[in-house]
Model the fold of this input.
Amino acid sequence: MLKILYFAGLREALGQSSEQLALPGGMGTVGQLHAHLAARGGAWEALAKTKNLRIAVNQQMAAMDAPLNDGDEVAFFPPVTGG
Done:
């Protein structure tokens, strides 16, 4: 089971801050999870449309080819600016 977290504008667009998802068979990378979630359509397309999307696995920044394992925590967040 993966714990998936959504932050900032993604949380608002999706209407949720987190979810639990069984790791689908054959899904082994962050990029595959990203594509799976975006393929839900509707508001979920925000994942595909967010430029410079940041992803962390177990609180470490991760690339799309990073491996996933059962029990991982995956966080998606758009770049944030401050001032």
Residues 22 and 64 are 19 Å apart (CA to CA).
